[in-house]
Fold this sequence. Notes:
The chain is an alpha/beta fold. The protein has helices at 13-24, 39-47, 69-73, 98-115, 154-172, 201-208, 224-236, 254-265, 279-285, 308-314, 321-340, and strands at residues 4-7, 28-33, 56-60, 78-81, 119-123, 178-184, 186-188, 218-223, 244-247, 251-253. It has one domain: 3-Layer(aba) Sandwich (Rossmann fold), CATH 3.40.50.720.
Amino acid sequence: MSKTILVTGGTGFIAGWCIVDLLRRGHAVRTTIRNPAREALVRAAIGAQIDPGDRLSFAIADLTGDAGWAAAMMGCDGVLHIASPLGREAPRDRDALVAPARDGTLRILRAAVAAGIDRVVMTSAAATARPPRGSGLVSSETVWADAEDPRLDPYRRSKILAERAAWDFMASAAGQTALTTILPGAVFGPLLGNGEAASVWVIQALLDGKPPRLLDLALSVVDVRDLAALHVDALFAPDAAGQRFLAMGETLWMKDIAGILRAGLGARAAKVPTQVLPNALVRVIALFLPRLRMFLGDLGQRRPVSNDKARQMLGFAPRPARETILDCAESLLASRAAQTS
């Protein structure tokens, strides 16, 4: 039976693919945007994948304020809460992103409970389930990362505290609303239309050869299309209520990702680096390139992770990382060509 689902942050990378997935399954979608001028861009992006007809509507609301959220929830059966500050530039203040992420999440949950929404599926991050360094533990849904770890970057800290706050709130909230959280790794895949590349800047940077050498870094890749499907599956699966789900596929070193790009794109990947930067030099460069700071604690580490729960309960079956990476790169190249033509 068709449902009406609210998706927060409709201009975002993950949110856009969630909207597409919901529409393909026959549901109606209402999505939030902060600026009404962005509606046409979102419609065009979604329309590149599926004609939404009259099943896509918009609400104006911002995570930093209460205005608009009650109206956005009205008549909806479920919520995919995806909007969150990215923190790509890694501010030096470790608390800079906490308030927007945590307070925005609580604002959504309060509105959902008040509206009698059946379930909220919230996008968290795999970093919230990361065990202590050197513990030998596998990342799984039973693990909670330490938000007070001094080596933690502001973005990951904000995700931990936001998810913690969400579960604490739901434990004390009265009503029928249930919470489920999805914890993705590094999200790559094709852009929607000529969308923004903010969420896939790592691949764009490799294509541009910046920096000219690779980081000694391992990333657990998840395709945005698989991630969107997992969100929707978690919204409707009865047993998913009250659960956390790690959403990660293959773990690859940056040199492996670079090799995939070079082998799959040929001359179009000529700028992709092949040599690895010494970790000590990365720490110096990060002083001048803020976006590198969030990776400093991960250099040289490949942590074991388990996505068994998502596979067993929700049928999560991530596609090969090679496909994800090349589809991401192809869309970035196509977007740049469209912008310069």
